[in-house]
Amino acid sequence: MTPELDPVIHAQARLRVVVTLNTLPEGDRIAFPGLKDLLGMTAGNLSVHLSKLEEAGYVEITKTHRGRTPVTYVALTRRGRVAFEDYTAAIRGLLDTSVPPASGVT
Question: How many CA atoms, within 13 angstroms, populate the side-chain half-sphere of residue 86?
Answer without folding.
Answer: 15
